[in-house]
Amino acid sequence: MSLKNKNVVIGVCGSIAAYKSCDIIRGLVKLGANVESILTSNGAKFITSLTLQTLSKNKVYSGMFDILGNLEINHISLAKKADVIVVAPATADIIAKFACGIVDDLLTCTVLTSKAKILICPAMNSSMLNHKATQSNIETLKSYGYEFVVPERGKLACGDYGDGRLASLASILSVVEGLFL
Ligand SMILES: Cc1cc2nc3c(=O)[nH]c(=O)nc-3n(C[C@H](O)[C@H](O)[C@H](O)COP(=O)(O)O)c2cc1C
């Protein structure tokens, strides 16, 4: 299978699993996709834009207002260009924002504006994931047609054991490919 000629926007959020987005980007690029990254400001506390830029061979976008003055791109350019937006890792915070229609950064703006397929790959502590608020937000987004890659069960970064680990690279890549079958 291949993602040739597909424009993939990856949203990287403020999760300890942010480093795993590197392998996801490498996997997407290997499959032939053109990958552009949006790193939330909290995501940038976990991983640098330089790393994402080097792996994707594309500029990395972060602040919604940083792109002002760039005549080639505006706050909805990535939304229009994307064939799929993969949010990996997706925090409880960003899922809540998507579900409520909050648009206070470039990633929320891009997702709310886009007509592309949206794939959410949550990663968080199991209590956060299983909280009624998060579950209700996930159900809301599913009702909007957003796709999810179910997080895995296992040892979490916080030391707890339970659901909430970012799904495996193989699962995420196979779901992305499956969206185009
Ligand atoms: C060390 C550390 C690890 C965190 N890991 C996660 C996580 O895996 N999942 C999550 O939903 N939030 C996690 N958070 C909380 C988020 O960083 C916080 O909700 C932040 O506002 C998310 O911002 P963003 O959604 O704009 O990227 C973590 C916070 C810290 C300090």
- Cofactors, ions and other ligands in the entry: flavin mononucleotide
Q: Spatial order of the strands in the main sheet?
A: 3-2-1-4-5-6
**What characteristic shape results from the CA principal axes?**
globular
**What is the highest CATH level, the class?**
Alpha Beta
CATH domain fold name: Rossmann fold
**Beta-strand level of the residues, as a percent range?**
15-25%
From the helix content, strand content and strand pairing, which structural class follows? alpha/beta
CATH architecture annotation? 3-Layer(aba) Sandwich
Helix share of residues? 25-40%
User: What's the number of helices?
Assistant: 8
Low-confidence stretches: none
Major sheet description: 6 strands, parallel
First and last CA, distance: 9 Å
The CATH homologous superfamily is called: Flavin prenyltransferase-like
User: Topology as H/E string?
Assistant: EHEHEHEHHEHHEEEH
How many independent structural domains? 1
Average pLDDT confidence is: 95
Q: Rounded to an integer, what's the Rg over CA atoms?
A: 15 Å
How many strand units? 8
Notable traits:
181 residues, alpha/beta, Rossmann fold, 6-stranded parallel sheet, two-stranded antiparallel ribbon, 8 helices, globular, binds flavin mononucleotide
Plain-language structure description:
With 181 residues, this protein is α/β, with parallel strands linked by helices. The chain has a single domain (7-80, 100-178), classed as Rossmann fold (3-Layer(aba) Sandwich), CATH 3.40.50.1950. It contains 8 helices and 8 strands; from the N terminus they run βαβαβαβααβααβββα. A 6-stranded parallel β-sheet has the order 3-2-1-4-5-6, sandwiched between helices. It is globular and about 45 Å long. The N and C termini lie close together (9 Å). It binds flavin mononucleotide. The site of flavin mononucleotide has 15 residues, from α4.
